[in-house]
Specification:
Number of strands: 2
Strand content: 5-15%
Largest sheet: 2 strands, antiparallel
Strand order of the largest sheet: 1-2
Helix content: 40-55%
Number of helices: 4
Distance between the termini: 19 Å
Order of helices and strands: HEEHHH
Mean pLDDT: 93
Number of domains: 1
Structural class: mainly alpha
Low-confidence stretches: none
């Protein structure tokens, strides 16, 4: 199981405090937008090759828990 808190951070100094993948400026919303358009993890990796599958899954898990 992927624990979102391992991969997601909220810092007011990064992307105006939006939830991001730790150590990046990639927001959870950006990841979800790509997935909503294509429904394919590979498309997220193409757009953000520095991310890992676990980070992408953590973004989705974070969003699910937030709702």
């Amino acid at each position: 199981m992927i624990f979102p808190c391992q991969h997601i951070e909220i810092n007011p100094k990064v992307m105006l405090g939006k939830p991001v993948i730790k150590g990046t400026h990639v927001t959870v919303v950006q990841v979800l937008d790509i997935l909503a358009k294509s429904n394919c993890l590979n498309d997220v990796l193409v757009a953000h090759p520095h991310l890992t599958i676990n980070q992408i899954r953590a973004a989705v898990a974070f969003a699910a828990k937030s709702l």
